[in-house]
């Protein structure tokens, strides 16, 4: 599997992210949906990676700068047929390593609090993320779980 920075210009990543946003809209109330669309990811404060296996897109993830030393993990997604195959773990390990290299001292994230998101929360817990209060512009939300870790 190869993980690399992506400029978000390819058709396959546009379709992959559209499916992500559509899935989040189908399971999360609109006021609790925080998934970024393609345009919101194409900003200077976001670094976006894709994971490809033999050239096939199998996952993605990003970090968005919140402030000096602090970034947020965004747009973590694994191709549904590849869930539970190690793609997310490899991608998250890469993102954490790159965030350290970029000088970040803390990574935080928002994910869902419902059963659908239990595997995501377990993944983040495995990588030493702990639950925290809302950060940045987030507000308390029964549909959200907030997590953070020092690097």
TrEMBL record:
Pfam families (alphabetical): Acetyltransf_1 (PF00583)
Enzyme nomenclature, EC number: 2.3.-.-
Root EC class: transferase
Record keywords, A-Z: Acyltransferase, Transferase
Domain N-acetyltransferase: 3-151
Keyword Cell cycle: no
GO molecular-function terms, A-Z: acyltransferase activity, transferring groups other than amino-acyl groups
Superkingdom assignment: Bacteria
InterPro entries assigned: Acyl_CoA_acyltransferase (IPR016181), Bact_Acetyltransf (IPR050832), GNAT_dom (IPR000182)
PROSITE patterns, per the entry: GNAT (PS51186)
Annotated protein name in UniProt: GNAT family N-acetyltransferase
Organism of origin: Streptomyces sp. R28
């Amino acid at each position: 599997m190869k993980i690399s920075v992506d400029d978000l210009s390819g058709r396959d990543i546009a379709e992959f992210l559209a499916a992500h946003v559509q899935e989040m809209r189908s399971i999360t109330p609109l006021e609790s949906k925080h998934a970024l669309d393609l345009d919101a990811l194409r900003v200077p404060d976001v670094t976006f990676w894709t994971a490809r296996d033999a050239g096939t897109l199998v996952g993605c993830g990003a970090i968005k700068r919140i402030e000096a030393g602090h970034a947020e993990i965004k747009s973590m997604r694994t191709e549904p047929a590849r869930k539970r195959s190690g793609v997310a773990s490899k991608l998250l390990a890469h993102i954490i390593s790159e965030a350290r290299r970029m000088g970040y001292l803390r990574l935080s994230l928002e994910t869902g609090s419902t059963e659908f998101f239990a595997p995501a929360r377990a993944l983040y817990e495995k990588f030493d993320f702990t639950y925290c209060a809302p950060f940045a512009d987030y507000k308390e939300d029964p549909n959200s779980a907030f997590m953070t870790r020092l690097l």
